[in-house]
Amino acid sequence: MSAPELDPLFDPESVAVVGASPDSFYSGNLVENLLEYGFDGTLYPVNPGRDEVWDRQCYDHISDIPETVDLAVVSVPREHVVDVVKSAGERGVPVALVLTAGFAEADDTGTDLEAQLAATATEAGIQVVGPNCIGVMASEGATLTATCSREPQPGGIGLVSQSGALAFTTFFERAADSDVHFSHIVSTGNEVDLTAADYVAYLAELDDVDVVCTYIEGIDDPERFLRVAENAVRNGTPVLTVKIGSSELAEAATLSHTGSLTGDDDAWTAAFNQAGVERVPDIPDLLARASAHTAYGNPDRDRVCIASTSGGLASLLADMAAERDLSLPDIDGETEQQLLNIEELLTYGGFNNPADIRGYGAHVLPEIADAVLDDDAFDAYVFAIGLPGVDERAETIADDLATIASEADDPVYVLWTGRKESDDPTATPPYARLRESLPVYEDPSRCLDALASTGDFVTAQTRLTNQPSRTDLVADARKNATNVDLPRGQVLTWQESERLLNVYDIPVVETRLATDVQEAVAAAEDIGFPVVLKIDSPALPHRTDVGAVELGIDSAEAVRAAYEDVMDAALAAIDEDDIEGVLVQPVVDDGVEAITGIAPDEVFGSLVSVGPGGVLVEALDESATLVPPFSRADARAAVEETALASLLRNRREGDALSVDAIVDFLIRIGELAAGVDTVAELDLNPVVVTEHGPVAVDALVRTRE
């Protein structure tokens, strides 16, 4: 998880631009931006076709430069990139920024060149950014990109983007339009060497980075990314991400109900949650939430006071706060009396929270602030202004809000929903001037999302601090892994499945295997009626579908008939040689049915899911996903996320059942998933949670080839 040394990339004292030419869009504009935006180091153009560019000597080769530079920018035809990077590495250059495209994203030749570039980076001992990279920026360092249309201003947001165009033309430009600024931006390109995880690790350790934002398309080593992100959150740096691909479903073919419950996007959401990463829907949301993390400290709790100039807006904000689990304590006591004493508010009766201060309240914002800011019942404040932000009255409102926010001990959020377009396009309107000193939100949902994000970070950091790190969980999983000898590439018999589950102390219902009617009767009488009979055959994983299961059998005579029925049903679908026998089990019906198991995943290897089981799998169509290994807190959160926890606590018949017991059960499933690579999928449906604990009454296990 150690962070790479990337100061030479973001704040180099000397830069060589190989392929430098004023006629090149990428290298030419990069040099123009580098010089125009305050680079005070030494620039060495390298281009054998020119003697001089930008009033500087142009060198034929990087080896001709009189010093070892901090950074080599490479913008040459793709067939020359490997040689340039090799020469830079041999010269001792620590980092190469490769702008050139046409590698693995292009064709087979590009794929071969990218493999050569990766090998060269390792052999030459040089860190490589890209290729196919649009550049990087540090507001207090160097701007090394062709697509930055204005000089970066100092900010507290670090951005790691797997899309180069979005990084600068969308993230940077849109943020700058709203007076939101970045400390660093990096477009990662094809990540032949340095990866998104490397940049997150580096940025999270910098004092001038308040929050790390990421735009993720795909990650080759998701486990390392999760560990790095978790480490950042543990150490006090929020990590927010936009992850595209939510419409994609898992491609792995699965036999189990468990596998059908989980898609790729569920896996990413679970992984981010477990690592403390906040997943954000889109770019405007990312910028809105990031700006809150840069402007405000972490709240003590989630108690919010909202004052709105519009009653309708106040009601809307109340609903939105509830959706985000934000608390709105009553405005009462001395605080309410102070507000009632403000004549301009024309209030009768009392105040709710959100408080409707009407439009008149905009004239007395300092008096309102004096009343509410001293109340220890609140941790954050929202002033919602449903008035124009561009007229003379807005001048006073903006000045008052700036003073209130600067003098408050707690975060003060400004939501300004009124008119933003001024009659004088050359003038800076009041709301925009206010935005230069603190975030000004225009959308109610984004304002409350931003506020909630700061509280969610505190919750995530606290949770992670109080549980083992992901690194420790992985180490424990490897240490506790059991060498279970399983047949490869097949569905297991019941006895094989039971042996596997017993290794991980996963309780299963008492089961006897009968190969004839007499054995079935004897087993049923020994177990005690009523019993269940079901076919045991790896060739028939879904025996219920063909009627090869009989329930509630209450006599020896009924066992004989049921045995023949399930055998006949099975033989109508499969060969007799594929049948192991008939399983005899007691009826377990005094409890709540759950489903849990393991499903294959192309990114994370395996996923674990949990939810209501039995007929409720289809009826409720809800489950929670976990990426193993996971902590007990993660397991509990997954159970609580579904209706299963409520079903256990609020039984129509009988006392409440233990949520802790199914959490323990789920932990063992996670240990199996992390410890036995040969298990491709496991379906335990149903698991019946009884007063004595959970017990699996059916199991389907498929192993990898």
UniProtKB/TrEMBL annotation:
PANTHER family for this protein: 3-HYDROXYPROPIONATE--COA LIGASE [ADP-FORMING], ACETATE--COA LIGASE [ADP-FORMING]
**SMART domains from the UniProt entry:** CoA_binding
Q: What is this protein called?
A: acetate--CoA ligase (ADP-forming)
Q: What class of enzyme is it?
A: ligase
* Pfam families for the chain: ATP-grasp_5, CoA_binding_2, Succ_CoA_lig
According to its UniProt record, the EC number is 6.2.1.13
Cross-referenced InterPro entries, in alphabetical order?
Acyl-CoA_Synth/Transferase, ATP-grasp, ATP_grasp_subdomain_1, CoA-bd, NAD(P)-bd_dom_sf, Succ_CoA_lig_flav_dom, Succinyl-CoA_synth-like
Catalyses which reaction(s): acetate + ATP + CoA = acetyl-CoA + ADP + phosphate
Q: Where is the ATP-grasp domain?
A: 498-534
The record's keywords, sorted A to Z, are: ATP-binding, Ligase, Nucleotide-binding
One GO term in the molecular function aspect is: acetate-CoA ligase (ADP-forming) activity
